[in-house]
Amino acid sequence: MKKIFAFTTPKRKEPLRDYEVSLLYKISEKFNLGDILEYMRWDEGHVRVVQANFEGGRVLLRYKEGGEAIAEIRTKRKERGRTFIS
């Protein structure tokens, strides 16, 4: 399932990596994604882009520090439990 989440980011007072990880964990808590498995970042002009893989899905975050942010969240589908009778 794909969801879009828009929010404003606070001004950065900590190192860039800690700032981005704190944003990702806030998104993870809101959408129940679990822990971060890996993430990478790059710049597209004045916009910073972060892609992160979580236990429960993936996030593509575009943001400006102290400005606006848009996150595209893709959650993994939960498998339905099946009972097999032998």
Question: Overview of this structure, please?
Answer:
There is one protein chain. By secondary structure, the chain is of the alpha+beta class. It has one domain. 19% of the residues lie in helices and 45% in strands. It has one helix and five strands. Strands 1-5-4-3-2 form a five-stranded antiparallel sheet, covered by helices on one side. Strand 2 (36-44) and strand 3 (47-54) form a beta hairpin. The protein is globular, with a radius of gyration of 15 Å.
Give a quick summary of the entry.
The chain contains 1 helix and 5 strands; from the N terminus they run βαββββ. It has 86 residues and is an alpha+beta fold. It has one domain.
Topology:
Layout lengths: L1 E7 L7 H16 L4 E9 L2 E8 L2 E7 L4 E8 L11
Antiparallel strand pairs: 1-5, 2-3, 3-4, 4-5
Give the overall shape.
globular
User: pLDDT below 50 for ≥5 consecutive residues: which ranges?
Assistant: none
Query: Can you count the beta strands?
Result: 5
Distance, first to last CA: 34 Å
For the sheet with most strands, the description reads: 5 strands, antiparallel
User: What's the overall average pLDDT, rounded?
Assistant: 89
- Percentage of β-strand residues: over 45%
Element pattern in H and E: EHEEEE
User: SS-based structural class?
Assistant: alpha+beta
Helix content: 10-25%
The largest beta-sheet arranges its strands as 1-5-4-3-2
Q: Return Rg in Å.
A: 15 Å
Count every helix, treating DSSP H or I runs of 4 or more residues as helices. 1
